[in-house]
Design brief:
mainly alpha
């Protein structure tokens, strides 16, 4: 599922959580000529903010497909840089408020104004807690994200691109050292992940420096990637050899020593890391968790309210599952049915190839049905890939990467096939619809292709909206006539149940002080998911507080709004028009989405 700027959600480096962090305070946009209309002025303002953001974010440029003089650089990882970026973002907000009166703007421009203001206010609420996040963990740690960036985002189309790849290899050392220093500062302040996280980080780090040129094994992950990209170029053999040798030297002189220093620091922290899992143990843990819930759900729900919503929906979904038990003729208890689905070999693939081929078949069938339910479809293609071997042990179950706006990179659904016993066939359809079509790929590709919207709306994200849409898409698949196998429909319900349970266990861990073992026990008792899937999920929620609550909260709101529209419009309701009303604004907070749908209903749908 999709995660912050990388994971269900891989949002671009200019996501709204981080949009403020791209340039210095001195680079605030200058006022355009007075003769321009307010709409043109505002559009120019947003473009200038975006240009300033990108000027200070080499990685943000790469996500957009921009290859210029910064293509070989990394973002500045220091807290000082983040603080300066935040100040610049707040200055940009002040500039917008001083220059533009929202009452003089068109409705669409007024929405952009409002969303820009919302994002800056959200950043201001998050900023005091910026050092409460973990620099290195199994979900979002730089130990795996930097290699993944080079492999999946850094494109090599010519000699200059290859030289930039080598430059980024050389830059891994300084950047990783900066992150190690920041992790040490946070550890000294008591901000460390639980002890069980460290073996995952250490395993990732050791995998990166395994193989040639670090030892006599097969080429390491990064050397293999560079070599493959260079060998595909139309260059003289001598030039190719020079580029690959330069990369080899960068791996030995920059990457290896830095990763060895990371390993030493992670081993030091592991020895003193806490056993407790929740962020309640931080000195400002309660306030931090409240901010995280508000950030991810875009609501003012309390932890106890979120917990109860989870319990209520778990009970509802269990009832729907019992109906499927009757359909397939299973006579035991629901928990016995869970054990049956969890352990019977018929529900698991024998090979990765079979799993991926079945995903391909399901997505092709879904793509053929999309025009009946959507008026706006993505232009960008979708590809499905296994998570790379070097990080598959620690990476999440599945996640999506948005396409580059220039068409140089497709949308990508990554599926983690490290252990096929963690990937039940019953869930394959729902997972493919969530991450691919009509889920994240459709929504985020359409968003990227909304050329009339300002960049911060085309390339940002609101987790409750984005992940709510992904979960909504799973149920939409049933409305579209899929899940013909009752076990597959049970898998769909299992996926929804999973998100309802997230509300319970996330608040349980971070608010009610549950242990990791308590949370694992709750999922074991209440879901059909296999043991490995359950353990990995709880490990994710521990290091990513609040994020997992966004899915169900967002989905419930979208379903509520659709049902409201169907009731109000009757026979006039059209799925395609409703979906346009949801999708063509780009991601918005749930309160704004509700206002837009209510207005759309009032206007006759």
């Amino acid at each position: 599922m999709s995660l912050r700027p990388f994971a269900c959600a891989l949002l671009l480096a200019t996501s709204p959580v981080a949009w403020t962090g791209m340039a210095s305070a001195q680079s605030a946009p200058a006022a355009p000529a007075a003769a321009e209309s307010p709409s043109a002025e505002l559009a120019a303002f947003f473009e200038q903010v975006d240009a300033a953001n990108l000027a200070a974010s080499p990685q943000g440029k790469a996500y957009r497909g921009i290859r210029d003089a910064d293509y070989g650089k990394w973002n500045d990882p220091s807290d000082a840089a983040e603080a300066a970026d935040f100040a610049r973002g707040q200055q940009a907000l002040a500039s917008m408020k001083a220059r533009f009166d929202p009452e003089t703007l068109s409705p669409e421009d007024r929405l952009s104004y409002r969303l820009f203001e919302y994002q800056a206010e959200r950043a201001a609420k998050a900023h005091p807690f910026r050092r409460n996040g973990y620099v290195f963990d199994q979900m979002n740690g730089a130990q795996s994200q930097m290699p993944a960036f080079l492999i999946n985002i850094h494109r090599v189309a010519n000699k200059s691109d290859a030289q930039a790849y080598v430059m980024r290899l050389q830059g891994i050392g300084p950047r990783l050292d900066g992150l190690i220093a920041e992790a040490r500062v946070r550890a000294d302040a008591g901000v460390m992940p639980p002890k069980w996280v460290y073996p995952f980080v250490l395993d990732d780090a050791r995998n990166v420096i395994k193989g040639a040129p670090f030892d006599n094994g097969a080429p390491s992950t990064l050397l293999a990637d560079l070599s493959k990209k260079v060998e595909a170029l139309d260059l003289p053999a001598a030039d190719k050899a020079t580029l690959i040798e330069a990369g080899r030297q960068a791996l030995l002189t920059s990457v290896k020593p830095a990763y060895e220093r990371l390993i030493v620091e992670m081993e030091r922290q592991q020895a003193i890391a806490p056993a407790e899992d929740g962020i309640w143990r931080f000195k400002d843990g309660a306030a931090y968790y409240a901010e995280r819930l508000a950030n991810y759900t875009t609501t003012d729900l309390t932890p106890d309210e979120v917990h109860q919503i989870g319990l209520d929906n778990v009970a509802r979904i269990h009832g729907e599952m019992r109906a499927i038990m009757k359909t397939v003729g299973f006579s035991g208890t629901l928990q016995e049915f869970f054990a049956f689905v969890r352990t019977d070999d018929r529900f698991y693939f024998k090979t990765r190839e079979d799993y991926l081929a079945t995903v391909d078949d399901k997505l092709k069938a879904m793509q053929a049905r999309l025009p009946d339910y959507f008026n706006t479809l993505p232009k960008a293609p979708l590809t499905v890939k296994s998570v790379e071997a070097f990080r598959e042990k620690s990476a999440g179950k599945a996640f999506y990467q948005s396409p580059a706006p220039d068409g140089s990179r497709p949308g990508t659904y990554y599926v983690n096939l490290y252990n096929l016993k963690d990937m039940a066939s019953t869930e394959l359809e729902a997972l493919a619809y969530h991450e691919g079509l009509p889920g994240h790929h459709l929504q985020r590709a359409v968003q990227t292709e909304l050329g009339d919207l300002p960049p911060f709306r085309r390339f940002g994200g609101v987790t409750a909206y984005t992940e709510g849409w992904g979960l909504y898409s799973e149920e939409l698949g049933k409305d579209m006539g899929f899940y013909e196998d009752p076990y597959s429909d049970f898998g769909r319900l299992g996926m929804e149940l999973w998100r309802a349970c997230r509300l319970v266990v996330d608040t349980g861990i971070h608010h009610k002080r549950w242990s990791r073992e308590q949370a694992i026990g709750y999922l074991t008792d209440n879901t059909p998911n296999p043991e490995g899937d359950i353990s990995k999920a709880i490990e994710r929620y521990v290091v990513y507080p609040g994020q997992a609550t966004a899915y169900m909260i967002g989905k419930l709101k979208i379903m509520e709004l659709r049902e409201r529209a169907q009731k109000a419009l009757g026979e006039k309701f059209q799925y395609g028009r409703f979906h346009d009303a949801v999708l063509k604004s780009g991601p918005v907070p749930l309160t704004v989405l509700e206002e837009r749908i209510d207005s759309w209903i009032t206007q006759g749908g």
